[in-house]
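Thread amino acids onto this structure.
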């Protein structure tokens, strides 16, 4: 189904098989969260850290040129997005390259998503995948029956979490879960090792340290462990692999003690490891659902670009008007009853802040993550043969893909 959608990855490991597998995963991911796209994926087998910014721009623009020449990026054919090793900056270069080659296409901005706000992006896109991981976990913990299946209880508050990869997805997931849900991120596994702190790490502190020093080693916030991957095997409530594929495999699966694993990365658990973990009763929230926040908000961005409006403007005005009426009413009541209340300017400002594009994006994403989880769990609990959430996720999405083929008479 066109347009198709998927991330563009810059990493030395990129190869044809990986790109094809990830494109197939995108098809099912889009179907699961009901975004109207087929799946695609792109990649360059380069390590972005080997190139300076100017060189990277030249590489990205040339790549975009070759794709656009063949209609392999186009608002109605293929709409890429960021993935490992790429971000807003690369998407802005791609959008600009496409626009230069298609000067009369008024929809050119919709040729790629994940762009910076000042280049046609949407509020909340950078954080979207990590935010989606947070919303997915929040929804999981709203279902005590599911929480019990993982051998857990209660809410996210106080839960011990280990995160692998403090990049775009891992950083935002870790930050929101620790700052907003009361979870404790006790270990972060990065390329050069892991950082451990039983009381919970300061995510922004660790992120700043990595930005300055290129790794977690020496960060004063926790204890450095050279063999980072050993931390995948530490006991914890929730494990969030948010870096590479295949990190939980036949080598280490027997030793992984997490009760719940949420696949923030694509394919972090190999098929063999999946079988072992399922037999042991580990609950796995599968990638095609867990990291669908990015594609969901990308869809909002694409719609925004095609409709040529700035989302939130109408809603903000309406909400502002309603809030103003309430504030005025409160002040009138107070004066009538001689209560002498005075609403502080700070209160009024805070009260009026609850509207706009970011709020619209967040509530749309939250709704998507809630609904998709509920669709999956309904199938999961409907039949003993549906042993886990991954099978349920595929049943839901394959059913939707099949229905769309049938509708077309294929
Ligand atoms: N960015 C998105 O919107 C998005 C959407 C869906 C899925 N994903 C998936 O999430 C995963 C991460 O993507 P990202 O965009 O956060 O990438 P990123 O490049 O921003 O971050 C990856 C992080 O993993 C770390 N890392 C690399 N090798 C490692 C290793 N061997 N051990 C531990 N850490 C290592 C890197 O240092 C980096 O901090 C990928 O599987 C990607 O396909 C990303």
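Threaded sequence (410 positions):
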């Amino acid at each position: 189904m066109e347009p198709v959608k998927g991330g563009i990855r810059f990493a030395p490991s990129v190869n044809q098989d990986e790109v094809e597998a990830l494109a197939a995963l995108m098809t099912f991911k889009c179907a699961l969260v009901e975004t109207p796209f087929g799946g695609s994926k792109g990649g360059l087998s380069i390590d972005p850290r080997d190139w300076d910014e100017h060189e990277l721009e030249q590489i990205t623009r040339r790549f975009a040129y070759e794709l656009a020449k063949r209609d392999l990026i186009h608002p109605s054919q293929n709409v890429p997005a960021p993935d490992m090793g790429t971000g807003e900056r690369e998407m802005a270069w791609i959008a600009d390259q496409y626009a230069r080659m298609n000067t009369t296409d008024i929809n050119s901005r919709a040729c790629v998503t994940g762009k910076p706000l000042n280049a046609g992006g949407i509020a909340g896109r950078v954080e979207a995948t990590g935010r989606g991981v947070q919303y997915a976990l929040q929804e999981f913990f709203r279902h005590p029956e599911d929480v019990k299946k993982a051998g857990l209880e209660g809410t996210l508050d106080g839960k011990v979490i280990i995160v692998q990869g403090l990049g775009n997805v891992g950083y935002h997931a870790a930050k929101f879960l620790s700052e907003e849900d009361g979870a404790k991120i006790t270990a972060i596994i990065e390329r050069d090792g892991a950082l451990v702190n039983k009381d919970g790490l300061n995510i922004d502190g660790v992120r700043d340290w990595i930005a300055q020093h290129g790794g977690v080693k020496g960060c004063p916030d926790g204890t450095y462990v050279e063999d980072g991957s050993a931390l995948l095997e530490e006991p914890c409530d929730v494990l969030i692999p948010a870096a590479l594929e295949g990190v939980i495999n036949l080598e280490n699966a027997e030793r992984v003690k997490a009760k719940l694993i949420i696949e923030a990365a694509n394919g972090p658990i190999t098929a063999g490891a999946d079988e072992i973990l399922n037999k042991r009763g580990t609950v796995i929230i599968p990638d095609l659902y867990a990291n669908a926040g990015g594609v969901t908000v990308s869809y909002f961005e694409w719609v925004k670009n095609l409709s040529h409006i700035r989302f939130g403007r109408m809603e903000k005005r309406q909400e502002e008007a309603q809030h103003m009426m309430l504030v005025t009413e409160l002040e009138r009541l107070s004066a009538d009853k001689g209560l002498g209340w005075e609403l502080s300017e700070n209160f009024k400002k805070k009260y009026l802040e609850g509207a706009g594009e970011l709020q619209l994006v967040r509530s749309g994403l939250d709704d998507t993550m809630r609904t998709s989880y509920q669709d999956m769990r309904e199938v999961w609990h409907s039949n003993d043969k549906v042993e886990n959430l991954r099978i349920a996720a595929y049943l839901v999405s394959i059913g939707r893909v099949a229905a769309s083929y049938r509708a077309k008479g294929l």
